[in-house]
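Hi everyone, sorry if this is the wrong subforum. Our group has a chain we'd like a structural model of before ordering constructs, and none of us has done structure prediction before. Sequence below.
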Amino acid sequence: MSVTISNGELLLYGFVGESYWGEGFTALEVQEALTEHGWSNDVTVRVNSGGGYIDDGIAIYNALTAHKGQVTMIVDAVAASAASVIAMAGDEIVMRSGAMMMIHDPAGYAFGTAEDHEKSRALLDKQADQMASIYADRSGQAVEEVRQAMKDTTWMTGDEAVEQGYADRTDKVRSLAATAFDYRIFSDTPRKLVALASRKGWSFDDDDRSKAATAAPTRQSKETSMAGNTAADDTTAAERATAKSEGASEAKARIKAIMTCEEAEGREGLAEHLAYDTETSSADAVKMLAAAPKATASATGEAASPANDDPKPAEFERRRLAAAGQAAPGQVKGSGEDGQSGRRTALKPGAIYAARRDAQKKG
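Answer:
Right subforum, don't worry. Here is the predicted structure as tokens:
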């Protein structure tokens, strides 16, 4: 899911972190969306998530608390687990009619000796304490009370969330449907969410996962999750590799189309800028090149030095690609393969770009 801010609204729907079912958002995506929106502009964040990875959740929470504009947090349906941490970042937190909020202890998995498991437990305890401080700071409750509520896995309606300080008010606007998540892993989960997960086939279990219509694997690295244990799927790695290869081919074709078009002749500097420093499409780049004036002789430096001092453009490009004449261990400073020492040679950028373009056409 691509995270964007439209009309001042940031939509955080699905799994917190790399998506398990094809629905979700990451901390990086949220950071990029906020940067594009402008850190001083007000933003409304709409949340509908069963949770996910604690690291992404806390990173998003910190990004939103650092946002200079007003942050209005609206829980559309569910803000559970890591998503409830994100919700605490709102300057105002609104629970829509029928929406639910849940807080609990983080979960994870460990492999190894008893000492390894003890270290894992110590880490989970520290993370739980950090989360409790976030909840306590927002709700006004004592950290000890919050920790107990987390251990008990506490589900709250909108009114209960307001009463306990986790939200500011409720909204009579009807809540939306919950997003894909295996709500059955939580204790004391409302029956309607358990039934929904069963009906949709939302499961972290490999045998059940194939039943989900939007099933997709999650990240493969071991991370602490507030949703329990998850499994990786090799299919995603293959799909990503294919997509990356296709993207590289498209980028190469785009660059070649810009650098070898007729409109680039005499405008080589602009062509290189459009091809390598921007994401302008080849069609738009050709239009921009056609509208731009061609470089003059003085602009390209063609009259800067006598003709006998000018290197041949094609030869210079060949040597540039081969890194010829550059400093190397044991090489005498000021000497190169042409036997010249300390002599500065005037170059013709326009001619060099033309030679490079000709080489690309032949390739």
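For your construct planning: Confidence is low (pLDDT under 50) at residues 206-223, 228-235, 297-309, 323-344. The chain has two domains: 5-232, 245-325+345-362.
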